Amino acid sequence: MTEKKSTPNTNRALKTRVKTARKRTLASTLWLERQLNDPYVAQAKRDGYRSRAAYKLLEIDTRYHILKRGQKVIDLGAAPGGWSQVAAAKVGATEGAGKVFGIDLLPVATIPGVDFRQLDFLAPEAPQILTEWLGGPADVVLSDMAANATGHKKTDQLRIIDLVELAADFAVQVLAPGGIFLAKVLQGGTETNLLAMLKRQFAEIRHVKPKASRADSSELYLLAMGFRGRPE
Ligand SMILES: C[S@@+](CC[C@H](N)C(=O)[O-])C[C@H]1O[C@@H](n2cnc3c(N)ncnc32)[C@H](O)[C@@H]1O
């Protein structure tokens, strides 16, 4: 029988893999601990929401009254579906009053009153698919999209800025006058250009940090209200 000799290189590679696996186990243990101790996670279970994120939208809506019966709402980055559930209830989607369209990279189990498609918003054809699917202007564009964190702060910030800029470009293409755009951004990460564009297109811009958004997270929401409409 021949025995495989370990070289310094294979030893080093093995050590790195063990280290990475340990880090991952620690991260998932911490995540699990946080989920188990999170009052919003427990509340979401009791209230039948798919995610604790539902309370962020509920809180923003209580403060700014963005969702109303009969509206057409688009929910970008909808999985697992908390925001879509809130929006569907507020617009009366199950009674045929309003409509909610959700998209995500991930699948979403059926939500009453919500039309869902598994779609990458960054795909070049996505805005056209969405516009045709909407079949007319939307009243509210929501984006809770977040790319998987790389752990590298600058990269994560750039990826989220990319998503929010594209979501904003899309919103100004599809919103009806008076429409609302709500998107997740990172603290200190809202591009000056994006803010300047939104200030031109909307009557009121706010940065909102709902209580349900974890205090140790740099997540923040950009709320643009009163879309001025596209020039004829
Ligand atoms: C924080 S979660 C959304 C939670 C959701 N608002 C809720 O209430 O359940 C962010 C979602 O954005 C989605 N996402 C990230 N990049 C995306 C992309 N390019 N296209 C579509 N969805 C995307 C992720 O798959 C993830 O499900």
Automatic annotation (TrEMBL):
Main subcellular location of this protein, as a coarse class: cytoplasm
CDD domains: AdoMet_MTases
Entry keywords, A to Z: Cytoplasm, Methyltransferase, rRNA processing, S-adenosyl-L-methionine, Transferase
Top-level EC class as recorded in UniProt: transferase
Record-annotated active site: 184
Gene3D superfamilies per UniProt: Vaccinia Virus protein VP39
Domain of life of the source: Bacteria
Subcellular location: Cytoplasm
GO cellular component: cytoplasm
Catalytic activity: uridine(2552) in 23S rRNA + S-adenosyl-L-methionine = 2'-O-methyluridine(2552) in 23S rRNA + S-adenosyl-L-homocysteine + H(+)
Domain Ribosomal RNA methyltransferase FtsJ residues, every copy: 49-227
Membrane-crossing residue ranges in chain numbering: none
A Pfam short name: FtsJ
Chain sites annotated for binding S-adenosyl-L-methionine: 81, 83, 104, 120, 144
Similarity comment: family membership: Belongs to the class I-like SAM-binding methyltransferase superfamily. RNA methyltransferase RlmE family.
PANTHER family cross-referenced by the UniProt entry: RIBOSOMAL RNA METHYLTRANSFERASE, RRNA METHYLTRANSFERASE 2, MITOCHONDRIAL
HAMAP family for the chain: RNA_methyltr_E
The protein's name: Ribosomal RNA large subunit methyltransferase E
The encoding gene: rlmE
